[in-house]
Specification:
With about 70 residues, this protein is an all-alpha fold. Helix content is about 75%, strand content about 0%. The protein is built from 1 helix and no strands.
Amino acid sequence: MKGETGMPEEHTECRYEKVFTVQFRSLGEDLQELKERVNRLEQTLARGVMLLIANLAGMVVTLARQLI
């Protein structure tokens, strides 16, 4: 666009810039939510693995006592 002087304005905005900005922010929020979900999933998986290891250790001790 041209300003009052007939010269092009220096700070013209693309008409889609606001839409892209909103989409970019939304993408950032979605990525943050995904990161939190993955973190919770990792924590749950770690707890499950620890319980599995504890159960296996208990089975080994039980079997060892029966053999002795």
